[in-house]
TrEMBL record:
Keyword annotations: Membrane, Transmembrane, Transmembrane helix
Residues forming coiled coils: none
Transmembrane annotation, as ranges: 73-92, 98-117, 122-140, 146-167, 331-361, 373-395, 402-420, 454-476
Pfam families recorded: FUSC
Stated name of the protein: FUSC family protein
Length: 631
């Protein structure tokens, strides 16, 4: 590929020690925000100053909007968690065993809700159970301290949020919308390449493209908190994603149509009519694809300028209630089993371990693979304990001056922040967990405690928490990626069968197509780094194509269902119920003839029926989609 003058003149980012300057700037902001939060917490003499530092570690995100959005959800979840802690401790404070059982149910409920959400909303649901763990469980022997502990934690979290917001504003943390616009533009180029027929897309490649489009959805919410025009930018980005999926589905319909050519002179009337209808469908689909591409370009312009898009789409989220329920039940049972283990063991001072167990279960529920997350915590927890010991007894070594505390924290915070900035999900997650767990084990206070016995017990139970969660997941394994894919595929097939008798809420065809793309994104995410089986990919895309064809046909038929075309339209609806390609094509012919007799235009309805006839052809296979065959 030749290098253009523009690309040759593009400045290269500054790199130091293998990290770009933007990563170093991000690490500096995290360190400054954490030290500011600790300083204010010490100055106000809060009971839980470490919570402010933990808040900064959790909100360590490279752009301003992302951090503010997560901060808002963290404050909301903290308020809900504090209220739940007071309620649970107030009702069940007389029976520790029953309290732990109720808390196990609360964990399962929070994990279930997290399974129905995405992005930072799912994190907020998980944080509701984590907050109860850090307040109610740690105060299990002193229930009267639940309210003061909740207030202290809320105040510390508020200081952490303000510190992050202030540092990001003063040091001009970058906005996220330029990055997001570039990602959507790259996806747009991929969709246009496919729709123009420049390349053939297999079922596996098609699912991958839909995954990449739907995966952007959770990230657009952060644009709301980025600036005063963030809401308009969010609407523009959301509309662009929906139109991308729509253009992609239209491109698959176009690719499935048979190649058109002038019929032979001796061809029958029916053959000539079929050729005309196919050419009509091809022309209409191409014009619709061009219109959708223009809408995507317009939405991208609106995203850059911060203006509302020409048409606002919703981007509905698909979540499996069954998968969420099974995940929540497993989390509740795992916590209960670990709590029973501690009750039978009779060990004192196990509140910290139970709290960290809830933290691991809660945060793990927001990841595609809870077991993989637990494995990362198994690695991060000993590292964090070792780093906390080095800081406490080798670096600080009895000092209490805040200046020395800030200098001693610098290598840890900057190093972990650099790992967080990496594109590798494993290294980024490891860096964040090491930073969070190190602060949790170290527990900065004013004055700092240097009791070695307390530190050893804390480190032991911190490491034990991840081991126990891993053991519980071995005894009661989480849903495997293969099982999740199978459940999601069955739900897609069941929805397709019921599409004749009910509508999926009240979404437009474009929005419903995005909802199906969100389900495909979950299927690929559940499978981790391994691609899904070719046969499953073909079945998945066949369900996607058929559902999209049905919805588009009905939407277009609804526009011409009255007047002289009512009879052919009703016949077309019946052919769609039968799901027979030949019957659908015959219905398209009848509608075309009726429209010519009545001098009414029904080209859109006819074109979608012709495309649906190919989609529902009896002998259609996944290979036929890419070759454009008609049986």
């Amino acid at each position: 590929m030749p290098v253009t003058a523009t690309s040759a003149a593009a400045p290269r980012p500054l790199v130091f020690a293998g990290f770009p300057a933007s990563s170093w700037a991000f690490a500096l902001r995290v360190w400054l925000a954490m030290m500011l939060a600790l300083y204010v917490s010490f100055w106000l003499e809060l009971e839980s100053p470490s919570s402010s530092a933990l808040t900064v570690a959790v909100l360590a995100l490279p752009t301003r909007g992302q951090g503010l959005e997560k901060a808002g959800y963290r404050l909301l979840a903290t308020a809900i968690g504090v209220a739940a802690s007071i309620a649970i401790a107030g009702v069940f404070s007389q029976t520790d065993s029953l309290l732990l059982g109720v808390f196990g149910i609360w964990i399962g409920l929070c994990v279930y809700v997290a399974g129905l959400l995405d992005g930072n909303r799912a994190y907020a649901a998980a944080l509701c159970c984590i907050t109860v763990a850090l307040i109610a469980v740690e105060q299990i022997d002193t229930p009267l301290q639940v309210f003061p502990a909740g207030v202290a934690r809320g105040a510390a979290i508020g200081i952490g949020v303000l510190a992050v917001a202030l540092v990001n504003e003063v040091l001009a943390a970058p906005d996220y919308h330029p990055v997001l616009a570039d990602r959507i533009a790259a996806l747009h180029r991929r969709v246009k390449t496919f729709a123009q027929g420049a390349e053939r897309v297999s079922a596996t490649a098609a699912t991958s493209l839909l995954h990449d489009i739907a995966a952007v959805r959770p990230e657009i919410a952060s644009l709301v908190t980025e600036s005063s025009i963030g809401t308009a930018r969010t609407e523009a980005a959301r509309s662009a994603l929906v139109d991308l999926v729509s253009a992609f589905s239209l491109g698959r319909m176009l690719a499935a149509l048979p190649a058109t050519s002038a019929p032979a002179k001796n061809a029958g009337d029916r053959t000539q009519e079929a050729a005309r209808l196919t050419a009509m469908a091809r022309s209409w689909l191409q014009s619709e694809i061009n219109r959708k591409n223009a809408q995507v370009s317009s939405s991208l312009d609106a995203l850059h300028e911060g203006t509302p898009p020409d048409h606002v789409w919703q981007a509905p989220l698909y979540r499996s209630r069954r998968i969420a329920a099974e995940t929540g039940a497993r989390a509740a049972i795992s916590f209960t089993l670990i709590a029973v283990f501690f009750v039978l063991a009779g060990w004192p001072s196990t509140e910290l371990c139970l709290s960290l167990v809830a933290v691991i279960l809660g945060l793990g529920s927001t990841t595609p693979s809870p077991r993989s997350f637990t494995m990362v915590t198994l690695i991060a927890m000993p590292i964090a304990s070792a780093l906390a010991g080095i800081l406490k007894y080798l670096v600080f070594n009895g000092v209490s001056e805040f200046q020395l505390l800030a200098i001693g924290f610098a290598p840890l915070v900057v190093g972990c922040a650099l790992l967080i900035s990496l594109s590798s999900p494993i290294l980024s997650s490891l860096g964040r967990l090491v930073l969070v767990f190190t602060i949790a084990v170290l527990t900065p206070t004013n004055p700092q405690s240097y009791d070695p016995e307390v530190f050893l017990v804390t480190s032991l139970f911190a490491c034990l928490s991840s081991v126990l969660v891993f053991a519980a997941q071995m005894l009661l394994p989480p849903l495997s990626g293969e099982r999740r894919v199978q459940l999601l595929l069955r739900e897609a097939q069941r929805e397709l069968r019921r599409l004749d008798t009910r509508r999926i809420r009240h979404h437009a065809p474009e929005e419903s197509a995005f909802r199906d793309a969100a389900r495909i994104e979950q299927m690929l995410t559940a499978n981790g780094s391994f691609p899904i089986d070719d046969q499953i990919a073909s079945t998945t895309m066949r369900c996607f194509d058929q559902a999209e064809a049905l919805r588009r046909c009905r939407a277009e038929l609804d526009l011409v269902r009255q007047g002289p075309l009512a009879g052919p339209v009703q016949a077309a609806r019946k052919s769609l119920v039968r799901r027979n390609g030949g019957a659908i094509f015959a219905a398209a012919e009848a509608l075309h003839q009726a429209s010519e007799r009545s001098d009414l235009s029904a080209s859109a309805a006819i074109a979608t029926l012709v495309a649906a006839s190919t989609t529902f052809a009896a002998s259609l296979s996944s290979t036929d989609f890419s070759q454009g065959k008609r049986p």
